[in-house]
Design brief:
The structure holds two protein chains of two kinds. Chain A has one helix at 4-8; strands at 13-14, 28-30, 35-47, 58-59, 68-71, 82-85, 90-93, 104-108, 111-115, 124-127, 132-134, 146-150, 153-157, 168-171, 176-178, 190-193, 198-201, 213-216, 221-224, 235-239, 242-246, 257-260, 265-267, 279-282, 286-290, 301-312. Chain A is mostly beta strands. Chain A has two domains: 4-41 and 307-312, no CATH class; 50-299, Neuraminidase, CATH 2.120.10. In chain A, the strands form six sheets. A six-stranded mixed beta sheet of chain A has the order 1-2-3-26-25-24, with no helix packed on it. The relative contact order of chain A is 0.16. Classes of the chains: A mainly beta, B alpha+beta.
């Protein structure tokens, strides 16, 4: 009779108890009852539905899968609605002072910022976890822009009108200052990262849907490796070294997800429902997308989880 | 053997499909319309777990032709809304800049 050692040239470990999945990835062992291994698995699951279906909404991009935040959007009239996510369900919170759609958003559930919006708004509003108060006025009124960072160190970039689509502004918690211009101006793009390590990808150069990516270092934007599928109105979130691009439209709605590691883009696990005008938040291992347009306004939420898990090895 | 099952089932939100479901079978959602209401339409991997999922969600199995007709009806509505959204004096390019491109048709796999 052959043995595991005969086949693989080494003995399999005997472990009296299973090690944590995260530290045992790729290993195989016998625990006295079963042969076990640990593999990394990534998947999207449905989350609680938004109270109000809408598209072109914004999120506190660094809010989390268990403490998420969305605001504004099109119902199709511009909406002032805010909803908070607890990992299971969305609860309506205080409305913004101004209804906005195609707006930009950043921050976390207890410290977020909404800015700009359709109609080239220059205003911003700050959310403290319950209600919104007026924030600093931007220098350039824009809609269809992107944002990332925090309420006291924010970054807003791109947008319309077309002659302003390369503009960047930095927020310090009270006022906006001009930053470096994008190399490829765009609207309806996706953003991630921080004020000093920002990331923009996808979008519409008007005309022309983009796959180009740029990194911001606090002063200037640098063109880096492009993602594979050019698209716009996609969800973008994460960090400059762990960015996520999910769904969107190429002219056709897509479910495609791509992940950025700070150098290269790779194809990730697809979302279940293709949609445009969707927003996203969280990290590359625990993410959340919500809302959008699937042909009609969507209230659907999907939660992404990437984690190691223990598996029993069987012969089937 | 068919690769996919087609069906309709209302997306009820949390845990309507789980991470494990997504690992167990292919699942892709579309918006359909039955002439009265929008209806969540699903393309599901044709294995035992996929079929069981649709049954557990009180879904209704459709043929591919039936499912495609539901999705086309929704697409037709979206395209009609786009066609009817006009501003006096607006050029075609300006309309696309304001609304985005006219919605396309979704073709089920």
């Amino acid at each position: 009779m052959t043995t595991y050692k005969n086949i693989h040239g080494k003995k399999i470990k005997f472990l009296a108890s299973d090690p944590p999945a995260a530290v045992a990835e790729g290993q195989v062992w016998y625990n006295g009852t079963d042969f076990k291994t640990s593999i990394f698995v990534s998947a999207w699951a449905s989350g609680g539905n938004l109270g109000t279906a809408r598209d072109v909404l914004a999120a506190g991009g660094t809010s989390t899968q268990t403490a998420g935040l969305v605001f504004g959007g099109g119902t199709p009239p511009a909406s002032a609605l805010t909803e908070e996510y607890d990992g299971s369900s969305w609860t309506e919170s205080g409305d913004m002072s101004n209804a906005r759609k195609i707006l930009a958003g950043l921050g976390i559930q207890t410290a977020a910022l909404a800015c700009m919006g359709d109609g080239t708004a220059t205003t911003s509003e700050e959310y403290g976890g319950t209600s919104w108060t007026a924030g600093g006025t931007l220098n350039t009124g824009r809609g269809r822009a992107q944002a990332c960072g925090t309420q006291t160190a924010g970054l807003a970039f791109g947008g319309e009108p077309n002659d302003q689509k390369a503009k960047t502004e930095e927020y310090d918690g009270s006022s906006w200052a001009n930053g470096g211009d994008l190399n490829a101006g765009r609207q309806l793009g996706s953003g991630a990262g921080t004020q000093t390590a920002g990331l923009i990808f996808a979008g519409d150069a008007n005309p022309g849907i983009l796959n180009s990516t740029e990194e911001y270092n606090g002063t200037a934007w640098t063109v880096v490796n492009a993602h594979t599928l050019a698209r716009k109105e996609a969800a973008g979130y994460g960090l400059q070294t762990a960015g996520v691009l999910a769904a969107g439209t190429t002219g056709s709605l897509v479910t495609t997800v791509e992940n950025y590691d700070g150098t290269n883009w790779t194809t990730g696990t697809a979302v279940a429902t293709a949609r445009s005008g969707v927003t996203g938040m969280g990290t590359s291992v625990l993410g959340l997308i919500a809302g959008g347009n699937t042909g009609s306004l969507s209230n659907a939420t999907e939660e992404f989880t990437s984690a190691a898990g223990l598996k029993t090895i069987t012969d089937s | 053997m068919a690769i996919f099952i087609y069906g309709t089932a209302n997306n009820t939100g949390k845990d309507f499909f789980t991470h494990q479901d997504r690992r167990d079978f292919f699942l892709r959602g579309y918006t359909g319309h039955d002439g009265s209401n929008y209806i969540d339409t699903w393309v599901i991997g044709a294995n035992e777990k996929g079929a069981l999922w649709l049954a557990e969600k009180s879904g209704t199995e459709k043929t591919k032709t039936e499912a495609q007709a539901l999705v086309k009806a929704s697409d037709d509505l979206a395209r009609t809304v786009w066609d009817n959204n006009n501003v006096d004096g607006e050029s075609a390019d300006e309309k696309v800049a304001r609304l985005g491109a006219k919605p396309s048709f979704n073709t089920l796999p």
